[in-house]
Fold:
Amino acid sequence: MKSKLLRAVRLPKPRGIQSTIMYSFSVISVSLMLIIALVLYLRFSTSSRQETIQSTQRLMEQTGESLEDYLVSMRQISDTAYYYLIKENDFSSYGEDIQGRMNLLYEANRDSLQSIAVFNAHGSLLAAEPLATQKENLNVTEQGWFMQALDEVENMHFSMPHIQNLFDDNTFRYYWVISLSRAIEITNEGKSELGVLLVDMDYSMISRMLDQINTSENGQYYYLCDSSGEIIYHPRRIQISDKISSENSRTAASYKDGIYDEVFEGERRKVVINTISYTGWKLVGVIPYSAFTYGMVDMRYFIILLMLLMAMMLAVVNRVASQGIARPVLRLNESVSEYEAGEKPEIYIGGPQEIRHLGHSIQKSYEQIEDLMKKIVLEQNERRKSELDALQSQINPHFLYNTLESITWMVEGERNDEAVFMISQLARLFRISLSKGRTIISIRDEIQHARSYMNIQKIRYKNTFSVEFDIDPEIEDYSTVKLILQPLLENAINYGVSGLDDCGEIRVEGKRDGENILLSVTDNGIGMTEEETEFVLTDSGRVHKHGSGVGLVNVNRRIQIYFGNEYGLAIESEPDEGTQVRIRIPAVPYTEEGTKRLEEGIQE
Structure:
C-alpha cells in the first residue's frame, strides 16, 4: 500500500535537453516566422512606399525640368524681343521694321505663345503680334501684369492663368494664357521712355505637361501653384473654383523643396515639393496613404504561403537539429563559461556544422576584441582632427554666388573697372581661404582677407556703410586660425548696419595685450539685448542659420580647439547702440615651427 502511494505522488521527470531544445526551437521558430512575416510585409510596404515616393520625385524632376525649359524659352523670347528688336530701334523711324521682326519672332515660336505686345507707360499699344487692334475702353494700366512690371522694373513677372482679352478678335476665340511682363526702355523720336513688354504664353502647354503625369489610378495627383498658394494648374481646378473641392495649396507654398507629412480634410498623405526656377512656382505631388497599400493584397497572400512552407520545413529541421545540437552545445557552453570566468581555454569546436561554426565565431570574436580596442584608441586620436576639418570645410555658397552675379551685372553694364576690382578682390579672398591647405595663417593674411571681403561687400551694398581698419603693425607677424574675422564682419553687416541708411559704420581693430592678441569688430547697428548676447555663444539653436554659414559658435569653437578654452570670443552689445565682438588669442609668432606645432594640435 505504501509503495503504491509513493508511485502515485512521484514527481514527473525533468524534461531532457533534446525536448527542451526542440520545444524552444519551436517557440522560437513560430516567433521568428511571425517576426519575419511582419518584417517582410513592412519591408515590402516600406520599399513600395519608397519606390512610390522616388518615382514621384523623378517624375516631378522631369516635369519640373520641362517647365523650366519652357519658361526659359519664354524668357529668351522676351530677351530677344527687347534687346534685338526694341532697344536697338526707334519706334518713330523703324516701326514697320520692328513689326516685321516681331512677326518673324512670333512665327518662329507660335506653337508655344499666343502674342507679343509692346505698350508705353500710359498703356497705349505700340506694336503687337499677331497684328491686332486693342479693345476700346480697355485700360491696361489697371491690369496686374502691367502694374507689377512697372512696380518692379528690374524683374520679369509671371501672372496667374487668365483669359486674354486685350485685342479685338473677329472669331471671338479667347485663350487661356500666362503673361510674362517686364519694364523696358523704348526709344521714340530719339527720346527714351518707359514701357512694358508683354509675352502671353500658351497656358495649354503647361496644362498638357501636367495632364500627362496626372494619370495615376491610386489617388495620387500633381498640381502647380505660385509662391502665395494661388493654384496655376490642378486636375480638379473646376471643382475647386466652384467650391466643390479644396486644396491645401497655401500651406504647400510655404514648404521648401522636400517631402512632408500632412493631414488634410482627415486624410493622411505625403506631399512632395519641387520649386520651379525663375518663378517661385511650386510643383506639388500629393500621395494619399491609401496609394501605398494599393496592390498589396497579392503580397499578403504570398507572405502567408511562404510562412506556411517555412513552418513545415522548420518542424523537420527542429527535430534533426535538436538531436545534433544537444550534446555538443553543452560542451561548448562549458568552454565558454570557463572563458567568462577569466580562464583562457580552447573553445570547444565540434558537433554539427552550425555548432562548429559557432565555436569558430566565438573564438574569433574573442580574438577580435583586442584588435577592436586598439582601433577604438586610434579612432579617438583621429576624431579630433576630423572635427577640425569638418568645422574648417564650411563655405558660404551664397556669398560666392551673389558676388559672381554682381560681377556679371557690372560686365553687362560695361562697368569694367569695378568688375576687374571685384574679381581681383575675390581672387585675393579665395587665395587666402585656401592657404595651400593650411589652417594657421599670419594675422597679416587674415586682415588682408577681411579687407578683400569688405571691399566686395561695400560694392555689393553700394557703399551704404563705411569700414575702418585700425591694426597695429606689430601683430601682423603673429599666428591665427584663418577665416575668423569674415563671419564677424558678415554678422555686423547682416544684423548690424544693413538696415541703416548710409550711416552704418564698422570698425576693425587689432593690438597686442601682454601675451595675447586682441582683435575686434565693432558696428553701430541695431545691437542685441542682454539676454540675446548671453545665448549667442552658448546656445547654437539661437544662432542665425543664414549669414556666414560658419557663425560665431563655429569661430569660437575653432579658436578653443587650437589655443585652449581660455581663448575665444566675447560679445558686448546694446540695443540701438551697436555690437562689439572681441577675439582673444595667444601671441604666437608666425614661424614654420610654430605653425607646424599648431597644425598638429600641440599646445604650449
Remarks:
- The chain is about 50% helix and 20% strand.
